[in-house]
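Troubleshooting log. The previous structure file for this entry was overwritten by mistake, so regenerating from the original sequence record. Sequence copied from the archived sheet and checked twice against the printout by T.R.
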Amino acid sequence: ALAQFRDEGVVGSVGVSGGPVDLIRRYIETGECDCFLNHNRYTLLDRAATDLYRRARELDLGIVNGAPFGGGLLAAPQDPDATLAYRPPPDRLRTRAQALGQVCSEFDIPVAQAAIAYSTDSGLVDTTCFGARTVGEVRSAVAALERGLPQGFLARLEEVVPPNFADDVEAWRDDLPIQK
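Regenerated output below.
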C-alpha cells in the first residue's frame, strides 16, 4: 500500500525507522524503502551502522541518523545522570564517554558539538535528527554545523577511544527498566 501511495504521488518517499542494524539492513535490501532513520548506532562511540550507511549509499537511499548523543550520554558525558538509550549506561561505556570528553577538551570543542559534527561531516548521513531542550542547545548544534570537527580530532579520538563497530544490544535490553 505504501509503495502504491508513493507511485501515485500521495507520499514522496517510503521509509523505515529503528535501531538494530541487522533489522534495518533487511528492510533496505527489499528494495521497497527510499530512506530510513537509524538511531544511536552512528555516534562518536558507536559506529555499528557504518557498513549499513555505506550500503545505503550504494542503494542511493536517504539516511537519517538519529540520536547522535546516544540518548544523552554524548551531550553531557561528565553528568552522572546522563543516560545511554534512556537508561543508565554500563560503566565501561561511561568511561569511554568520559575519555571522549577529554579528547574534546584537547581540541577545545564541546562534546555535544563534536557529536553533531561527526554525523553531519561524515558524508554518509543526509539528515541528523537530535533532541534539544533549550534554545542554547539549538545554538550549539548550529555552531557544530558551522565549525565542523577540528583537524586531527578523529585520529586522536580513535587513539584514545577506539570505535565500536558491533551493534551493542546490551544498552537496549528490554529487561532493564527505562529511566524516567
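The two ends are 37 Å apart (CA to CA). Archived copy saved in two places this time.
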